[in-house]
Structures
1.
Amino acid sequence: MTELEKTMLINENMTIEDAMRVIDQGISKTVFLVSDYVLKGSMTDGDVRRHLLKGGALNESVCKIINYSPKFFKENDSANYQDYMIENDLTAIPIVDNQMKIIRIERLKNNKESIRKIEESIPVVIMAGGFGSRLKPYTEIIPKPLIPIGSKTILERIFDKFEEYGCYKKYVIINYKKKLIEAYFKEDSSYSDLYFIEEPSFLGTAGGIKYTKGVCRDNFFVTNCDVVIDTDYYFIWEEHKKKGNIMTMVLANREYCVPYGTVEISDNGNVICLCEKPRVEYKVNTGMYLCNAKLLDYIDDSEKIDMPELIQRCLNAGEKIGQVTIDGNDWYDMGQLDELEKMKKRYGTI
């Protein structure tokens, strides 16, 4: 489970008021009662309202109103979670293993009512100057930011996601086929506070951020132009602010299945055990960050630098870099052809 999903969990020692506070401060109108991550029940804000209308009190035990027959899916079930939640009027549903331990929690996408707006006016910097080499031959004709995903370009989908959370000011770093990108958006006045910054030459995946100095004075998001992160941006901002990071990286859990049987060997050369097609889980960089303006001091003017080098430079200087880990299913990376198809399936009909 991710840290974000853990904010949806409650325990039997809580009062109804405690549980309601979890709902108010959380990412969903539903919370789940657990014991050592084993699913026991569920509760919604509607359950609380019905309890109060019947004359119940907030200081009573949460067990008084828990639904001890919650809906859930097993990890190997083949189901369309989104359709199921819509049909059953749910905002979230847990996915459990054979011991009923929650592995992750699926949430209803585009549930506008549950979105918490970021109070500060946080600008967004989109790195859109790359050549899109992994998407050739498409990008030899059209720049990567303008590749359509359904009825909109990838860049428009990124804009839409940030605007859901109140982030309207957008700075797009452009280089390759920059005139095409600018011309496309000049014809569309629906996006407010949109500014283009032209790199004089390609400055890597991080160098162009320096050109926002003076306009990004406090905290600001940075994202690659080929990823859509379908998670709670408010939670990222909250964690970043609370921990005082110079940068908060957004990571994703990704599982890789080794296509062969692996063998473990002892020090004396004997076979200890065999594991057929093991699965290995990694935390990978999604290409989205929440940064403090102090980060810009670690980039020289007109310097060509990639993000990994910039991050290491900050770490070497003793700066604090945090992370928020999301479910791998909430990260759509258009940078590779197979992932592009996955993104089209998610957004293609919108």
Note: The mean pLDDT is 86.
2.
Amino acid sequence: MKNVLYVNKPSGMTSFDVCYRLRKVLGTKKIGHTGTLDPLASGVMIVLFDKATKANQFLVSDNKEYIAKVKFGIETDTLDIDGNVIKESPYSLPNKEKIIEVLKSFIGPGKQVVPMTSAISVNGKRLYQYQREGKEVELPVRDINVYEIELLEMFDDGFSFRSKVSSGTYIRALSRDILKKLDQIGTLESLVRTAVDEITINQCDKLSEIENGNYFVHDLYDLLSSKYPVVQYKNTADIMNGKKIILPIKEDRVLIVHDDEALAVYDRNDDDTYSCTRGLW
């Protein structure tokens, strides 16, 4: 099922905008993506279309990699350069060793206060809606994990860093917390998502290239088989009819395939039987 695009999203567009433009290129109404990128951000965006959209729920990534640039001296209401400036202050550039020390302190499991600009729901309303209305609300706290983080470059007014983080980590919030430990005010100036799991930005087609007809369509099987154990199953009628099946394995979730075609995702019951969670045909 070749219904997957790896897109290098440009900065200045929402993820919805990207999907809207791709609808026209692909001639489809069924389209979605596996992880939102803010308008400021560019980089890896996995887009599913037509039948592949059925698999969206199974493609939550385990980790993502970013390159971020932080600018000292200004603070904004969105924690990035696109927001309204709410504070300005002179700054003294921390030395390289101090920045490295602070960055390393974030490696490992931790807690993160979700930024007000996020789409997380609190009491049935998105956080960004509260922000637009000027209302205060208690911000949720998430468990995150920073697997890798390193200083890349220092500038006259800030620095850039690379981080590999667990799914659900907000880099603008990570930048906020880094700045706080540095005892500086600042904001996220630029952000590039360079990888989602094993998919890198070098594998992605630019939106402009796709709109000019120059792009590669990937197979859904490749994505799913990298995340779940694959079970080759001959009796496709059982799978198409959503029947329970018995498998001599112990994995909780498997990808059922026939001739390398992804047919369904099955989950293990309390015994040795497996039930169809979602058909993909």
Note: The first strand starts at residue 4 and ends at 9.
3.
Amino acid sequence: MEKEIKANNIIKIVFKCRRERILSYLSDGGFEGAVMFTPENIFYFTGFWGESIAICTHDGVKLFVPQLEVSRAETESFDCEIFQTERGEDSSKSLYPYLSYSKFCSDCNDFKSIDSIHKKISEKNFICDSQPFMDIRSIKDENEIGMIKKSSEIIDRLYQVCVEEIKVNLSEKELQAKLICEATNKGGSFPCYPFSLNPFIIASGPNGALPHAEVSDRSFCEGDLVVVDLTIRHKGYVSDATRTFALGGLSEEKMRVYDIVKKSQEAGLLAAKSNVIGHEIDLVCRNVIQECGFGKNFIHSTGHGVGLQVHEKPWIRPNDNEPLREKMVITIEPGIYIKSKFGVRIEDTVAIKGNNTHNNDVLTKFTKELIVVN
């Protein structure tokens, strides 16, 4: 019991610090509080993930939830005043008495909700801008990094399942089913992508040439490269990694491409440290691939931040000018895609620990040596 009380007190301190950070950040713009509509931001400041709206001021956090969520919100949130409200469009009406006399910043991106609020509250006093929330969340605390480490450990276990299970005539969907089962057993859950029907990317043979291929009924064949891109949540926090496996004998072209991508990824990991700008890391990876003659086959950015979302600040891509900072968590994931033939991608999730690359913590630790499964 004493340990449980101590753990709860530590968590309360974590949430108190997060709330103080966002209020301090917003005060520079003349804001007196924040209004959160997105589940990631509400979870970040309250510990509750569900249908709700939250208001954070120096007086505390008010959490507005429909009746069906009240009991769960009371159990899962930390130091919040719970208010029962209507569902849907009427939920924002409960906010009006608390927004009348102050200037608030909100992450709301729903036009109907914004329009409804602006009919009652001046547009000058209710400004929608998600940037402050993303900026605050881009720097992780130790609790968050711990959750991402746990997600990474689950991913490492899933890659061992790949080694054990990938074989000729097994389909992409069958492998995905085995991985989903193992991930669930290990305490993992799955982010929801708006542009995909599947939790994972498992792309074999010519499907591997599509960076965001949908998992299909295609069966693995001798000589395939199999790209396996896994994103796993643990207690809300996401880790993201990709490994490419070989099935049977490989052509010299495939082995050469794999080696180039591996060297590119290694170069990116070495370049990633505090104060280095995102586009500089992207360029390091891209130059390795360009110099080997495959520049036109690297068709996406080098990486992105991870946390409560799979893709969040910071961005490791061309034209991004934001420097990395200590305790940001990012991915490094170069790839080469040969149309209608095959693809190779290697990706790790990395916690930035300072100006020295050797201090960084590569959270996904499964080997990047080419594994040939039989």
Note: The longest helix spans residues 2-27.
4.
Amino acid sequence: MTIAETQPAAYAVFPLLADASTYEPCQWDLLAEPEKRAYWIDLFRGHFPKLLAEAMRDAEAAGLDLADAQQRADAARGQFERHLDEITHQPDSHSPLNILTICLERERVLRRTGFDDPYRLAKQVENESALKLLPRVLAELDRMPPAQLQSRIIHGVFAGNIFDLGATQTQAMFTDQRVDFYATLDKLRPRPWFIDDMAAWMRRLMSHAHRAAVLFVDNAGPDVVLGMIPLARELLRRGTDVILTSNSSPSLNDVTHVELERLVDQIAQIDEPFRRAIDEDRVELVPSGNGAPLIDLRRVSGKLAEAVQRRGVDLVVLEGMGRAVETNYTARMTCDCLKLAMIKDRGVAEGLGAKLYDLVMRFHSPDMGD
């Protein structure tokens, strides 16, 4: 297994974008849509105190000076509130203005005030819980016939993706300890999904063996461990090399590159086929260069761009609402691209004409003219 450096030496345009000159990461222009702008400003304003409460909990667990931490939290709240006030009253002074730019400003405020990873404890708890369940999940997958297996893997990605502490609805679920992977599997929306390209994906799998895939993973816990690792494992079984790319720096409960290193080491001890693929250098971990729950593919790490070209990647998987819907929903690649997400925010749902908890499985293949 090749482990790339955590911090990117330089940024690069993701080399598989079909047309980087016309690519726009975020489809909603909040300057042009005042109602959407008001919704998102209110959402960020309401969520930030919950984020700071997690930061205080982490500071207490780390034995930090709580008076100092509270002072920094108050400063962070003031700075972010001022930014939200500015884009409320003078939106034209901030261009471009979209969900991604607001996310990036939130991360800058947190870093300036000394809060690097507010959800560290929550991620640790969910990672440990998911790892305990992983052997059962993999054993069940190994007993399934091929057609059922492919469907169940996609269902598993959707069920795992519910661990999202950036979406207000699912954050409340985790606060109340009401999330269970198998219960979520049972409650997933039935097909046809809001976007349902399962048939096209199955046809592609039956007719084509991918050389290498890059998987943009999303959240820690069940999302990456019980959802994306089984998908990666199945691709490896089919002869496809796998690059797992995750955030270079923390943001909400997104899994980071350093955390993914530790998880993969533990998974290799649990699962022999995955360990064998690692030993054969068919699994590579690369930081994406990103530090937000959404991603601009014009600014990925140079390490990721190099790895994608070196491995000859011909399958891109974008997973999670932030990477596959709030950004990159309409993005096209020069190769096969699979986008998977559960819609966990009312504003996102309304913007798409969907419903809360609708499912997106969007597949495009230039070879299939689709």
Note: Residues 2-8 have pLDDT under 50 and may be disordered.
